[in-house]
Design a protein that fits this description.
Layout (H helix, E strand, L loop, with lengths): L2 H6 L4 H27 L11 H11 L9 H18 L9 H13 L2 H21 L4 H85 L1 H29 L19 H9 L4 E8 L6 H22 L3 E8 L3 E8 L11 H10 L4 E6 L6 E8 L14 E2 L12
Parallel strand pairs: 1-2, 4-6
Antiparallel strand pairs: 2-3, 3-5, 4-5
Helix pairs in contact: 2-3, 3-4, 4-5, 5-7, 6-7, 7-8, 7-10, 9-10, 10-11
């Protein structure tokens, strides 16, 4: 472990010390290690530990303070000071060439490939010469080559470790950005879902209320019992819309108020007969047919089918001017198919967000939505197919809405 790593783990120490402070600490530690032979008792016959020899030892350590700024020059200065100590003074020897190892490790860490390879070759030559002058001791030669090779490897390992840490930090920042983007996209999808829900609820309820309110004055003069039924239908549509909006807003505010407030469940296929009955009371004759073996497709799909039928019937009431509407739900082995057919004006009767909402709801479950003229070219038909098992590839958001003839339908069915 490097001293820089140690200081980095002490809060507030690394910024205060800095690179120069770290180099000073390294020089002090090397000086302490090289002082040991001068302070321990020496056996008779060994070279005397004089102040002159100790001063030259310190001279070999001082260049280490500038090892980052000029690693090659520091290594040359250290080797020159070591040679001066060896040839000019008969002082205590060192168990390891500490200064040379630190300088050589710094060269391996900070220098360019051609420079550090050349310095490594010169260092090996210097080791061969110095050990050769010392009696050609093979054991000392191998040991010296080993420690200098270890210093070089440690310098390169430091570079690799630094690059790895940078890669890990970059990866962590990228993951953080990815998570933030995913969270923003999830929030956007949730906002879009809530907008579709509120659009369907309000559009359906207000459309029924407008139709009943417009028919009310006429019914008051001609058929008072029908006027009473119209007012009841307006009241029921308003209460139903309020209940659904209260449930939705309760979900949005579940962390602000009473988290255990009772809420109604999401709409399901079981609510379709009641929905059809409410629309039937507004004028058009609406029929509802279920074929196949009813297999529950799951709460999410049931809520989607309910909202699509609600939006389709709302479009009929507002734009189609139809007298009859047929809602057919087919439970197939591979898919759930919904068909809504009316005898009204046909394609082009409205402009808004209705078809987009239907397409998005179907695509969210891997399904498709097709529109076109009804049987015999009269009226309008909406056909939605939702597979039983959602496909593994893709989310279906790229599903196109096609007409029955295979061309893209550019007219909305409602707002």
């Amino acid at each position: 472990m490097r001293i820089r790593d140690i200081t980095a783990r002490v809060p507030g120490l690394a910024p205060a010390v800095g690179p120069l402070g770290v180099d000073l600490l390294v020089a002090l530690l090397v000086q302490a290690a090289m002082t040991m032979p001068f302070v321990v008792p020496r056996a008779p016959g060994l070279p005397e530990a004089t102040w002159t020899s100790y001063g030259l030892t310190t001279l070999t350590v001082l260049p280490l303070v500038a090892r980052r700024r000029a690693p090659v020059a520091v290594l040359v200065a250290v080797l020159a000071a070591g040679a001066l100590y060896t040839f000019a003074v008969d002082g205590p020897g060192q168990p390891l060439p500490y200064t040379g190892l630190v300088a050589f490790c710094t060269v391996a860490e900070l220098s360019s490939p051609p420079k550090r390879i050349g310095i490594a070759a010169l260092t090996v030559a210097a080791v061969l010469v110095s050990v050769g002058l010392d009696g050609d001791n093979m054991r000392e030669l191998f040991f010296s080559l080993f420690v200098f090779a270890a210093a070089y490897a440690f310098g390169r390992f430091t570079v690799t470790r630094r690059a790895y840490l940078r890669a890990v930090e970059d990866r962590a920042r990228q993951l953080e950005r990815t998570h933030r983007i995913e969270a923003e996209q999830a929030a956007a999808r949730e906002r879009a879902r809530i907008a579709r829900e509120m659009h369907d609820i309000l559009s359906h309820a207000v459309s029924l209320m407008i139709v009943q309110a417009e028919a009310g004055p006429v019914a008051v003069r001609t058929a008072p019992e029908r006027a009473e039924a119209a007012f009841d239908a307006i009241s029921e549509a308003g209460r139903d819309a309020m209940a659904q909006l209260r449930r939705m807003l309760g979900v949005l505010r579940e962390n602000e108020g009473a988290p255990h407030a009772p809420r109604e469940p999401q709409p399901s296929l079981a609510g379709l007969p009641g929905l059809v009955e409410r629309v039937r009371g507004s004028g058009p004759a609406v029929s509802y047919e279920v074929t196949g073996s009813p297999v529950p497709p799951g709460p999410a799909v049931e809520a989607t089918v309910y909202r699509i039928v609600q939006e389709a019937l709302t479009n009929v009431v507002r734009h189609a001017d139809a007298s009859t509407v047929a809602v057919r739900l087919e439970h197939g082995p591979e898919a759930l198919t919904l068909t809504v057919t009316d005898d009204g004006r046909g394609p082009g009767g409205g402009s808004g967000l209705g078809l987009i909402g239907i397409r998005e709801r179907a695509a969210a479950h891997g399904g498709t939505a097709g529109t076109g003229a009804g049987p015999g070219g009269r009226g309008f038909r909406l056909r939605v197919t939702i597979p039983r098992a959602r496909p593994e590839t893709g989310t279906g958001t790229g599903t196109k809405v096609k007409t029955e003839q295979g061309t893209e339908q550019g007219t909305e069915v409602g707002s």
